[in-house]
Amino acid sequence: MSTEQLPAEVNPTTTVPVVLSAADESPEWRQILQEAEKLAAAPLTPVHLKVAPNQLAHLPEADRRRVAWQQTVANCILVANQAHKWNMDVFACAACTYVVGNKLGYEGKLIAGVVNTRGGLAAPLQPIYSTGKGDALAAVIYGTRDGSVPDDAYPLLEAYADNEDRAALRQLARIGVLAIRISVKQAKTQNKMWTTDPEQKLWYTGATKWARRFAPELMLGILTDDDLQCMQETATRTRPEATQSRIAMVIPSTLDASGITSDLPDDPESDPQPQSPEPTTEPVSEPPGAEADAPSGMSMREEYLAYVEEAGTDDHLDQLMVTAESGDMLAGDLEIVRGAINKRKVYLSRGERSNG
C-alpha cells in the first residue's frame, strides 16, 4: 500500500473535475460527489484513499495529476456513498476505513454505531456476558424494536449466554427480544484485541453479527475488520509453503507472507498477526540460487517478471498476482506484470514450458 499522499495543492480548483453523465445529475448524487471531493482534498484524509501522480507512471506526465485526482475522488465516492446510505458524517466514516488486499473495510466500532442509529431499535444494543473464561467466554447481543426489554428477559439472556440454551432463545423471540450469541472460540482471530480486551471485541463482532441477521439492509457489500482478518488468515493457511518462500523474496515489507497487506489501523481492534502456513507436499522448482540470493539491483517489477517466467501452473501465477496487487508496485508496473501473467497462462495452456 502506498504511503504517499496526493499533494496538498491538488484540489478541485486546480484539476479537471470528475465528469458526470446526464443520468448522474440528481441532487442526491451531486451531494455525494461534493462530499467526496471535499474528502479527497482534505490533507488529513486517510492515505489509503488517495492516489498520487507518481503512482501513475504508465500514463503521460501531463495526464497524471488529473487522473490521480479523479481516482482519489472515485475512492472517496465509495465512502461518501456509504456514509449517505447510513446518514452519517462522511469524514467520520472515512476515519474508520482501511484497505487490505485491495478491499475496503470498516472498523467494528463504526458498524456498532451504525446499528444503534439506523437499526430501528427502541434502545441501543446491549451485551450480556457469560461466566466462561478464555475461549469459553461468550456474549449475547440483544435489542428490541418495540419498547424496553422486559424484566423477565434477563434470566433468559443469561441462560442463553452461559449454556447456549435454545429454548431460552425461542422465549426471547416470543417476547420481542432480538438476540445473537457469539463466543471467543467461534470468532477469535490473530487480532490482539481478542487477548487484551475480549469483552469489547465480542461486542464489536457481535454487533456486526446482529446486524447481518436482523438488519441486513445496513450491511450490503460491507466488509469489516473481522472479515478481512479471516480472509488474511485463510490465505496464509492455504498458500503452499514452497511457493510462499518464493513470493516472500519479492513482497514488500508492508506485506506478510500471505501476500495480503497487514498494515491495518493502529486501533487495537484491528491489529492482526500473521499466521504460519501449513506445510505442503508439492514443492515448486526454484530458479538457480533464487532462494539464497535474488539478483541485486533488480526492480520489483523485474523480480516479479522473473518469477512469472518460472511459474509452472496457473495457481502459482494467481498467487503472484495477488501478491503484486496487494503491494507497493506502481500502477504501470502492475499492468506489465499482469500482462506477463496472462501471457504465461496462455503459454502454459498450450503445453509449453519455459527454457529459463
**Arithmetic mean of pLDDT:** 77
- Compute the CA-based radius of gyration: 24 Å
In helices, the fraction of residues equals 40-55%
Q: How many E strands?
A: 5
Largest sheet: 3 strands, antiparallel
Proportion of residues in β-strands: 5-15%
N-to-C SSE string, H for helix and E for strand: HHHEEHEEHHEHHHHHHHH
Instruction: Give the low-confidence spans.
Output: 1-16, 240-296
The SS-based structural class is mainly alpha
How far is it from the N-terminal to the C-terminal residue, by CA? 31 Å
Please give the order of strands in the largest beta sheet: 3-4-5
List the total number of helices.
14
Shape: globular
Structural write-up:
With 356 residues, the protein is mainly alpha-helical. It has a domain at 225-349. 47% of the residues lie in helices and 7% in strands. The protein is built from 14 helices and 5 strands. It has a 3-stranded antiparallel beta sheet, with helices on both faces. It has a two-stranded antiparallel sheet with strand order 1-2. Strand 1 and strand 2 form a beta hairpin. Helix 12 runs parallel beside helix 14 (331-349). It is globular, with a radius of gyration of 24 Å.
